[in-house]
Amino acid sequence: MTPHEPSARPHTAVLAALAAVLCTVCLLVSPVPAARAAGQAGALEAPGQDGRKVDMGNGALLVPLALVVVVGGLAIYAYTRRRRRAETRTTPAAGAQQQGWSGPVTEGVPSARLTAEAGKLLARTDDALLTSAEELGIATARFGEEAVQPFTAALAYARSELATAFRLRQRLDDASPLDGSRPEEEGAGRQMLEEIVARCTEAGRRLDEESDGFDRLRDLERTAPQELAAAETAFRVAAGRTGAAESTLAVLRERYAPSASAAVSGNVEQAKDRLLFATDGLNRARQAADAGENSLAAVHVRAAESAVGQAAVLLDAVDRRAREVAEAEVRLTGALTGTEADLAEARGLPGATAAGAGLQGRIAHAETVTAGVRQEQRTGPYDPVDALRRVGEADAPLDRAPAGGAPGAGPRRAAELLEAATLTARSTTGAAADYITTHRGAVGSRARTRLAEAQRHLERSGALAGSEARRALAAAQQADSLAGQAQYLAEQDVRGYGKQRAGEPASGAVLGGILIGAGGAPARFGGGATRGRMGGAR
């Protein structure tokens, strides 16, 4: 029974009973076979008890015919009922692919336990997708997009399932009342939890389904020497970037407020930690390959290439942050000028004074923000990204001023504000994604849920940008806020993880989810059932 059909069993029992009754009636009403005259053609005959042939005429055909009708009717009823239920579901992505949906049975599981298990499953499934995407990228670079198409399709399907699961979790979080009651324990909330479990299970199943084919493509044991050489090259490239990243980070710290570089402040040290782990793995892989132990070499290569990949993510984040800060600094001057012009227009609108405290309050807030940012620019250091965010958030409500402004000014201004809001939202969302990706061994489902929602709102903003600038602006600002929450929650999780280890520092390989399970197996492309298939070597 799937989570979407909590009442399927009672209906099935009723239908089975109905089928039995109908079959019995057919047997009772069938005419008694009569002896037929010899020489009559076309009759079906069977030997009777006395050896004579007994007519099995048209009346007896009613029995199998009735069975066919009953079975066919049951099939049609089940199909219609399932389709109607799928079409009337209130959960997101009602039109998404449903093939193969057969999540674990959750009937009878207490709601509190189901909530906890659903959260763990969300995190584990997200880990599986992140690892699968990483290794798929390596395979694509080696073999080309056409060769990896089945695995790309599997990953896309799994992402769709997980995205819906995260959306459901966010809806449950949004519905949480202030009185402390748990919507998960109510009917609709319980059904949403069950669907989260089913969606995550299906995402993992789809990846597991392709793991054997992926192994045949990469064939790490046979190609271990070649893959080792490629991993060593990638390692040298990443290691050569650490010096430049340190310089970039030093400039950010010197020129701007600490908050401007806070999201990447530890990235260089973490990248070095991943590279140190990779060094050990590559050395072990080289020793195993030289000894002809390709199976062992493959294990170390896979762990090393994952560590090198995370080091590259951490270093890329530093470079991207520097570009975002520089762009925000350039945009800020124009944003301040535009907000001050909007303030002047708002003050001069007909009836502005009579509009009441609402407009006057928005004007006063925007004046305070612009004055404060101007002061920060003069005295420094400041955070251009944060300043641009604050100016945009203060200006956007002025667009809701009473009518009377220049025709078309509102939409034009909303489009200008959208550009700035998109920059800040992408910056915050990218930083949160990088942090969660490289600390996924310690980050739980709450932070991942907020990040997924931030990414969804950011995508929606982009889709609306060309036609509905105001709605796109609101979506971008929502994405920015959710991504900030994701970053905060993820950092909390990492700190809590450290405390659970009684002060013992966690290695980058564990924090990054590079090694999984008690045996320390390197994570592979696949779902929960197959991603640890290589086994540990440490």
Describe this structure in words.
The protein has 538 residues and is mostly helical. Helix content is 71%, strand content 2%. The chain is built from 15 helices and 4 strands. A two-stranded antiparallel ribbon has the order 1-2. The protein has a two-stranded antiparallel sheet with strand order 3-4. Helix 12 packs antiparallel against helix 13. Mean pLDDT is 82; it is low at 1-72, 74-103 and 403-408.
Number of strands: 4
**Could you tell me the strand content as a percent range?**
under 5%
Order of helices and strands: HEEHHHHHHHHHHHHHHEE
Uncertain ranges? 1-72, 74-103, 403-408
- Count of discrete alpha- or pi-helical segments spanning 4 or more residues: 15
User: Residue-averaged pLDDT, rounded?
Assistant: 82
Q: How far is it from the N-terminal to the C-terminal residue, by CA?
A: 41 Å
* Overall shape: globular
Cα Rg: 32 Å
Structural class call reads mainly alpha
Structure characteristics:
15 helices, 2% strand, globular, disordered N terminus
List the helices and strands and how they pair.
Blueprint lengths: L7 H22 L15 E3 L5 E3 L6 H26 L23 H33 L5 H27 L11 H32 L1 H36 L2 H4 L5 H24 L3 H55 L8 H23 L4 H12 L13 H30 L6 H20 L4 H32 L7 H4 L3 E2 L4 E2 L16
Antiparallel strand pairs: 1-2, 3-4
Helix pairs in contact: 1-2, 3-4, 3-5, 4-5, 4-13, 6-8, 6-9, 8-9, 9-10, 9-11, 9-12, 10-11, 11-12, 12-13, 12-14, 13-14
